[in-house]
């Protein structure tokens, strides 16, 4: 009796090991069979590990006083000193304020592509619509350096067309680029100029998917054009709008180094500096590595929190969610 | 009643057409003005007489640009980085996106999450700079290519395209005796020409227009790409011709004309390819947006 039990136990043990072995063997043979697939994926995986995840780990220098000679790991820990400095240093407070203000203005112009898409959608002549689309997409392909060149030329106090107009109206010309008062509107308007046309693409795609029968039904019910837009078109692209808005919120504090930096000069910097340009100037140029890493980390964390929060609210309110 | 709504609707149509036309003009006129200035004489530019048509027509600004070795060099650097970089981008993106589109690949969830996470939470600039520096890439053109080898967005666009290739096709090729790499090169890639073109253009345009990576990683003026050179010219009116040649007087007299000529040359490749670019960019943006 006892011996048979032992026997049985042994045999089930053996069964398990045999099953496990065969599973391992299957996995191994699958790995072996498709080894070319794994092999060619190695460079890409290494790329993400080295250039995205190693820097993420290297961000510990935000909690240290980084010393080039001691290296990342042997530099002394200082806790949250640099994060406190971010909120105490008058310079970084000014930059933070600029960043928040510009982000806020960016949110104000966020619906512009939606409105432009609605207007484009109302055009009846297909050829004219294509023509306008081709032109308004174009600024998206120009580099920010070139865009800054264009606008600095247009706003020039001596030869720019805007000041020619102002002089013609009998006022004195204004040095737009040399004043703190104009840099924020310039940054927002140039961004609008560059991105509004391109931003319509996704909305137009969503509009193309609207069932034409809905418009027919609305017409039968006596809806005029405005009512058709409000009751058919707008609800159809609202989900697209809210998803794009969520993505935008996720980039609340980082809206691009280039689009700001190319317009800055010593005369307008006070109101134009944002976190990214400040990180470049103070961190990279003046080697305050730990302090600016803390700023960068702060930025990334705020973005992540906002994204999760906005997603939660959107899910509750409208059922649209990123994940 | 019926008449009045259609009348109002007509008024709206006219306003809409006019509004969109003026919007398009605000996008076109700055470029036209750059062209006009690049062909204009220095006096006319300085007096502010040039708007949308060349005044005192001249080619001297372009002559200057063609004789300035540093502008040529910058142009060449941009060309090398754009062509070489785009090739490396495509190679790296494909060789990661294809395996991760195959159901046979074990552990793809972890890797996909790893890529996705970098889109949501980006590492700060300084630690990234230190990594590039430790690889000895600072002040080499590799710094403009390797640290941005795979864009997560383009990776997902490409992968979603590969996912749509019917797996029966791949099984058939396997039965016919093709190996995994044979399937990739002889079946999948020939089918993927549209997405390769789109992604290649995404990468190419971003290389050509890129300014900040060069600013971060290059200190040697000999390696400056065109955008950095252009930016210097816009900011400093900086011209770099030996002081007693004919061209130094042009540089002195017509800095804006020369700037504008350089802007034209930097924009020309993009404008020439524009119809092609637009088609593929629109397509790529749509694939990307559907997937997300």
Automatic annotation (TrEMBL), chain A:
Domain named ABC transmembrane type-1: residues: 96-310
Pfam families: BPD_transp_1
Keywords: Membrane, Transmembrane, Transmembrane helix, Transport
InterPro entries noted in UniProt: MetI-like (IPR000515), MetI-like_sf (IPR035906)
Cellular localization per UniProt: Cell membrane; Membrane
Record-level GO cellular component terms: plasma membrane
Topology of this chain in the membrane: Multi-pass membrane protein
Transmembrane found in the keyword field: yes
GO biological processes: transmembrane transport
Superkingdom to which the source organism belongs: Bacteria
Keyword 4Fe-4S: no
PROSITE patterns: ABC_TM1
Transmembrane annotation, as ranges: 36-54, 99-120, 141-162, 182-208, 229-253, 289-313
Family that this chain belongs to: Belongs to the binding-protein-dependent transport system permease family.
Name assigned to this protein: Aldouronate transport system permease protein
Native source species: Neobacillus niacini
Automatic annotation (TrEMBL), chain B:
GO cellular component: plasma membrane
Gene Ontology terms describing biological process: transmembrane transport
Bilayer topology annotation: Multi-pass membrane protein
ABC transmembrane type-1 domain mapped to chain residues: 75-277
Residue ranges of the TM segments: 70-98, 110-130, 142-162, 183-205, 257-277
Superkingdom as given in the UniProt entry: Bacteria
Pfam families documented for this protein: BPD_transp_1 (PF00528)
Alphabetized UniProt keyword annotations: Cell membrane, Membrane, Sugar transport, Transmembrane, Transmembrane helix, Transport
Compartments where found: Cell membrane
InterPro entries recorded: MetI-like, MetI-like_sf
Family, similarity comment: Belongs to the binding-protein-dependent transport system permease family.
Name recorded for this polypeptide: Multiple sugar transport system permease protein/putative aldouronate transport system permease protein
Originating species: Neobacillus niacini
Top-level taxonomy: Bacteria, Bacillati, Bacillota, Bacilli, Bacillales
